[in-house]
Amino acid sequence: ESIKTVLTSPENRILIKRMLIKCADISNPCRPIEQCIEWAGRISEEYFAQTDEEKRQGLPVVMPVFDRNTCSIPKSQISFIDYFITDMFDAWDVFADLPNLMEHLDNNFKYWKGLDERKLRSLRPPPE
Question: Which sequence ranges are marked TM in the entry (predicted)?
Fold first, then answer.
């Protein structure tokens, strides 16, 4: 009933649509772990390439944390989740009830945290 009330206002419907688009855009940490790892790698590689190109051209480096020689992908994912994802998806979950997404988010955060605690900087632990 409260959702129907929220949806009666055109301004609220626009806000909800914008929120949904934003959540979809940055939702990688809410995917199943294998997809999350794959896309974290792709995104990191894109940022590494940008940093490499900025250095090559002598431009200011926009994202110095994404220097491929020093970057910790687990730390970058933890920071991204802490800074952008958790509060946004907590709010979205209250509105839309998304237990699967929230479970993936929790599992993925624990995965990256586990790598970071082991002082690993890569997408995956080394083969044992």
Answer: none
pTM: 0.89
Helix (H, G, I), strand (E, B) or coil at 89: helix
Q: Among 127, 25, 123, 125, which Cα is nearest to 76's?
A: 123
Q: Over range 76-104, report the average pLDDT.
A: 95
- Smallest CA-to-CA distance from 123 within 15, 46, 37, 60 is with 37
Query: Total structural domains in the chain?
Result: 1
Kindly state the tokens that stand for 58. Answer: 């002598």
Can you list the alpha helix ranges (DSSP code H) found in the chain? 2-7, 10-25, 33-56, 73-80, 86-96, 99-117
Which residues constitute the domain of residue 46? 28-118
